[in-house]
Design a protein that fits this description.
alpha/beta; 6-stranded mixed sheet; N-acetylmuramoyl_amidase_3; 4 domains; EC 3.5.1.28; about 475 residues; binds zinc ion; Aminopeptidase; Immunoglobulin-like; signal; 5-stranded mixed sheet; 17 strands
Length: about 475
């Protein structure tokens, strides 16, 4: 999240166009593109074209002077081998990038915002290496998949002499085949990144850095939990478009999507954590509305414009199927969010005690339950310190994982290992339970249908503190 700045009122008219200075050049290397950003003192016209033998990209800026030394750019991992600059036509600036791989250039200008002035953005996209192979609209794809599945079930039912309606009740896991015991996939999204730092704390802590650290920790904990697997939406300091984030989750067949953020406000006072789900019709509070607007503004900083809203698709896609799916998805999101808030409340103050709802673009997957966690206020000095602290990050992410696990242990997807364990009584049959990251004693008691005091007694526990790997005896209730 970032702060809103007041737009300057009025504008100055100069008789002649002033030359724009290139004050600074920034570079980010993402898996599927490299992004160059020219920080400008005023807007300039640019022409971008490619040359062969050797492969080069030429960026011509009309009436511009270079005030930065491009030799200080860290080119490692990017598509660029070297950068040369020169004066062109007396007043123009030419930047020549020597390339080490095929690229497709794309460039656009960005108007000043509260963090940066005028910018020219040049993206070097790698053909065929998009993070998402299938650029098809996720909703259309989902509807198509569901229609195909429904049609297949109907055909099979008819072939087996059952009424087609029975097909709907058929379980997705064929009992004749071995159970797939698949992992539950959790997409972990570190907010912001690259050219979009997110919010900045009073001591200079950047949201994009602390949320990546926390996302890393969460992914590690998930991968240590049997039956779960993490997928990182970004694993470095680069920007991923908001819609792209949900597409990557879908591509990786995620069962759940969680976006990690840190909140900010114009005063240092507000504190606490909050959890957000998508709202179908308007944000639950004015704050939520404002926050959604600022988080979604990321894509303006990142340079992605165009239609990010699902609303414009409604004409084509409004249907019972979509409504049902989204409602079910949202209900799941709210349920997981409730479990998560309960755990987070044991780590930090809650800014809002209920799951808030707002129109965050990253939460708009029609069939993947999705939550956005504002882990704390980076604008509050004490919470800024906490958000930088490794032990605190670990506790916060453990709470997030706890909420996810509680939900999926209660409602495992049919093909998952957890479903198989539940159906074969594996989690309790032996009368023992091995403690995993994110567990609480009360949570374990609840899941096994015993009281907290029974559980304490059976294990002769003096306190409720437990450690990962510890094995508890589960008393028969
Ligand atoms: Zn944020």
């Amino acid at each position: 999240m970032g702060m809103l700045a007041l737009a300057s009122l009025g504008s100055l008219h100069t008789a002649s166009a002033e030359a724009g200075d290139v004050d600074n050049i920034r570079l980010w290397a993402a898996p599927d593109h490299s992004r160059l950003v020219f920080d400008l003192s005023s807007p300039v016209d640019a022409e971008v074209f490619q040359l062969d033998n050797p492969s080069r990209l030429v960026i011509d800026l009309t009436d511009a002077q270079l005030k930065d030394d491009p030799s200080s750019l860290n080119l490692s991992g990017s598509a660029i081998n070297s950068v040369r600059t020169g004066v062109r036509d007396g007043t123009g600036l030419r930047v020549v990038l020597e390339l080490n791989r095929p690229i497709e250039p794309r460039h656009f200008s960005l108007a000043p915002n509260d963090q940066y002035g005028d910018r020219l953005v040049v993206d070097l996209e790698y053909p065929g290496e998009s993070a998402v192979d299938d650029p098809i609209d996720p909703i259309e794809k989902m509807i198509r998949e569901q229609e195909i599945a429904a049609q297949r079930a109907k055909t099979e039912a008819v072939a087996e002499g059952r009424a087609p309606e029975e097909a709907a009740a058929a379980t997705p896991v064929d009992p004749a085949k071995p159970h797939p015991k698949r992992d539950i996939i959790i997409a972990v999204d570190a907010g912001h990144g690259g050219e979009d730092p997110g919010a900045t704390g009073p001591s200079g802590t950047r949201e994009k850095d602390v949320v990546l650290q926390m996302a890393d920790r969460l992914a590690k904990m998930i991968n240590q939990t049997p039956g779960f697997k993490a997928v990182m939406i970004r694993d470095g300091d680069y920007y991923v478009g908001l819609r792209q984030r949900t597409l990557i989750a879908r591509e990786q067949k995620a069962d759940f999507f969680v976006s990690i953020h840190a909140d900010a406000f114009s005063s240092p006072r507000p504190y606490g954590s909050s959890v957000f789900a998508l709202s179908q019709s308007g944000a639950t509070s004015e704050t939520a509305k404002w926050l959604a607007a600022t988080e979604n503004r990321s894509d303006l900083i990142g340079g992605v414009d165009g239609n990010l809203s699902l609303d414009d698709k409604d004409q084509v896609l409004r249907g019972v199927l979509l409504d049902l799916t989204m409602t079910a998805t949202l209900n799941d999101s709210l349920a997981i969010g409730g479990d998560m808030l309960e755990r987070i409340g044991q780590v930090n103050h809650l800014h809002k005690s209920r799951v808030e709802q707002a129109g965050f673009v990253v939460l708009k997957s029609p069939d993947i339950p999705s939550l956005l966690v504002e882990t704390g206020f980076i604008s509050n000095p004490e919470e800024e310190r906490n958000l930088r602290n490794g032990a605190y990050q670990e506790r916060m992410m453990s709470a997030v994982l706890g909420g996810i696990r509680t939900h999926f242990e209660r409602n495992p997807p049919p093909a998952s290992l957890l479903a198989w364990q539940r159906d074969h009584g594996r989690s309790t049959a032996s009368g023992e339970y091995r403690i995993q990251a994110g567990d609480t004693l009360s949570g374990i008691a609840q899941r096994h249908g015993v009281s907290l005091s029974q559980l304490r007694q059976a294990n002769e526990l003096a306190s409720d503190s437990i450690r990962v790997g510890q094995v508890l005896r589960i008393p028969s209730s």
